Amino acid sequence: MMSENFVFAVVLSALAAVSTFLGSLIGLVVRRPGSGFMGFSLGFSAGVMMFVSFAELLSTGIRSVGFVPANAAFFTGIALMFLIDLIVPHEFISEHRVDAKMCSPDEPVQSGRGWRHRHGQQQELERSRLLRLGLLVALGIGLHNFPEGMATFAGAIRNRKLGIAIAAAIALHNIPEGLSVAVPVFCATGSRRRSLLWSALSGTAELAGALVAAGMLMPFLNEALLNLLLAGVGGLMVFIAFDELIPGSYAYGHEHLSVAGVISGMILMAASLVVFK
Fold this sequence. Notes:
This protein is mainly α. It has one domain (6-101, 120-276). It has 8 helices and no strands. Helix 3 crosses helix 7. The radius of gyration is 20 Å and the shape is globular.
């Protein structure tokens, strides 16, 4: 069954990666998805991730390999993501609300060489800041996309429906992540090609994670190891939900919509587990 799901798992990871690119296209075409939508969608992804982590991944690990090994794997996943966050410099959308207002047209040039010089310096500093922001956000997204790709792959190898649920949650929050990369890079450079390129590169980390998981794990994979890995994946996703998605959701200023998103994600995940068991 695991080998039969191999191609399906890789394709599913690739589809989740493509959603980051989709988010960048939305950022360049639509420019301003509503803040309520952004807050709700990030909260929804967090709810799906948290529920599937506790109700499916960790609980299955406990039943399969025992309480202590499964929880050790779960908290190892949390610790791994925490260490990555500490060691590698990056930024997330929870730290910077990014929207098209950053790309407002240049103010009319007023008279006076000194004013024009100062204004030009300020614009250059702002462009430099936005470019740095976009690249750091792309790095942060790539860091999280890599283990998310491993999560999608491992979930789909275990069970196709579980893999789809994980990939859907990841794809949904990849859309605003792609937006958060594309907008500042476009504002800084004026180049749609560069903004799409950086967004696409951050998304490909998802597929890279799936391929690394495939190369490293498939030769040794058995039921016990897979369930340990999935418990660790649960820890990764819980950390991402608490560290990135929920703060990012609240950053859009619609707290009740954010909470509604979290609860809706949990309800949908619970319903899918009942229907598709």
